[in-house]
Amino acid sequence: MMKNNFIKTPYLPEKKVQWVLVDYRVDDKTLNNLQLRGINIIKTLPCHDLYEAVEGHPDMVLHPLGGQDIIVAPNVFSYYKDKLEPLGFHIIEGKTLLTRNYPENIAYNICRVGNFLIHNFKYTDEILLNYYSRPSYIKIHVSQGYSKCSIAVINEEAIITADAGIHREVTKFGIDSLMIDEGNILLPGLNYGFIGGTCGYLDSNYLAFFGKIQDYKNYEKISKFAEKYGKSLIAINEKALQDYGTLIPLTEMD
What we know:
- Helices cover about 20% and strands about 25% of the residues.
- It is built from 7 helices and 16 strands.
């Protein structure tokens, strides 16, 4: 049996990814493309307390803390405990029960970039905040509560976002932030989705997108920015770019 190695820094694997978590609505062709790369898949459980557009988005209901620890909303805690504990994870139940509307639905949608934490901290789950209370973590308060949705993490000091408030605040802390245009990302049920929800790493260098990133209007800008940090962009299906609430890498190969 293959050993599960936990990813030390959320979203940033150091080796080839072994297990990922994706929205339960991701199409079969995309799932097959991931499996052909030797990646195992866990699908989310729809959280019907959220509105339909985001009810399957993993970044709405849980937050990987790095290593074995994952914090999960009480709404769906038992499902993820059953799915993830067999892989060796320690599943921590959050305090905040998610409900449908903003800001009561954003408690776990915090973005971690290395040791930087980006969120609207008025609404962050209390247990999640307690975990990150050590002085080694630097909190960057923003008004945008959908922080992880809004941010594609490139490395421990670089991000991509279309949110001007996030862009402005993170640059004060020395994070290299690429500002892109809003829109042109599918999110059925809403006007448009966010760049952070479209992607996730499959290993230390390949950032995979739900959709043909090469057709996205800001592709050239994003590609050059990623290249600056030694990252390559790949499409895991041929559709238009879609926000599925982040492809979350869980474990990596030994």
